[in-house]
Amino acid sequence: MQVTGYNWYTFGITHQHASAEDRQLFALSSEELTQYYEHIFPENECAGFITNTCNRTSFFLFGKHPEHIEQHFLQSRNQSDILEIGERYIGRKALNHLFEVIAGLDSQIIGDFEIVGQIKAAFDASKNHGATLGIVEKLVNQAIHSSRRIKNETGLSQGTSSTSYAAVQFLRNTLPHFNNAKILVLGMGQIGKRTLDNLVAEHGRENLFIANRSFAKSERQGKLHGVQALTWDEAFEKLSEFDAIVSAVSAPQPVFTTTNILGTNISCIVDLSIPFSVSTELQSQPNLVIANVDVLSQSIAKQMEARKHWVPKAHDIIREELDKYKEWELAVDAVPVIKALQQRLEKQWQEKNLDAEKIERVSAKIEARLFERIRKNPKELKELEKQLYGRS
Description:
Blueprint: E1 7-14, H1 20-23, H2 30-43, E2 46-52, E3 56-63, H3 66-76, H4 82-85, E4 87-90, H5 92-102, H6 114-128, H7 134-153, H8 163-174, E5 183-186, H9 190-203, E6 208-211, H10 215-225, E7 228-230, H11 232-237, E8 244-247, H12 258-261, E9 268-271, H13 280-283, E10 289-291, H14 293-299, H15 301-307, H16 311-351, H17 356-376, H18 379-389
Parallel strand pairs: 5-6, 5-8, 6-7, 8-9, 9-10
Antiparallel strand pairs: 1-3, 1-4, 2-3
Helix pairs in contact: 5-7, 5-16, 6-7, 7-16, 8-9, 8-14, 16-17, 16-18
């Protein structure tokens, strides 16, 4: 696929630039995501996907006018310059950034490979709306392959530290009777399910409860993990029975307030939601311990120091895999030019009544040599275009 005038472009707000409190102001609702995929992307001749997680709201784009999408996002949040609040990468730097994100190098907890599942989910959502292209899918797959190599060939993911794991360790260190504590996990999205996995392993199934807006989803996870599933309404009716809550929901307004929490036995809430699911006034209550994703990342900072040793090796792998992707991209661009040149030569040879088998054999050799020349020197493609089409 050869797309003239298209470019790779990424921008967004992440934990690198904004606290969790500020990041929630830039989180996108499901309605906004649909608007981008079905209207704003095509209107600006762009394909791509949006990651909308507790640590980032980031746009990964390929197209003609990605800067217009950036402006739309800024205007919707009453901002004027992305670099004052976030980040922007263009061209190869945008590709490199995506590889780093999927490798866990840009995660709040370095080496946290939960981001791989989040990127896959974001890409699938875009694909379901018809907002992506094969070239974007190829890039994502190459980046995921790179992250697997990093996981297998380095110690970047050594240990089990991740946001979900850190949440469980925080509960263990905060609750005086952790193993017997009654804990509610609210929200069965990716982060909720992974936290539940870790809770079952560390805490055991007894006294673990889960709830989701869709009861069918929580019921399915309840059977899978051997824990009790509650309806959304049941969970809030029984709040006084719990010792702690892990909240991994997506809601425009806080779901936990002084009204439904004060007077209960709840002593700890781990808020993995962006926007926050805990109200501001509840966060200031003296007898309630609340941890968001920023607090969790600080709690395991010491373990992260050991992982930093592997960062240079991870960057080496990314360079190798990104070079492979660029070679593929170049080869895709070269196909129509080489095929056109082959057809021209074959026509000339046929007019000279050369042997058909010989023409096919020579044509294949020329194709292989041209691809190799272009791979070694991308400028050769422009020279071929000039000879074929008379372009200057």
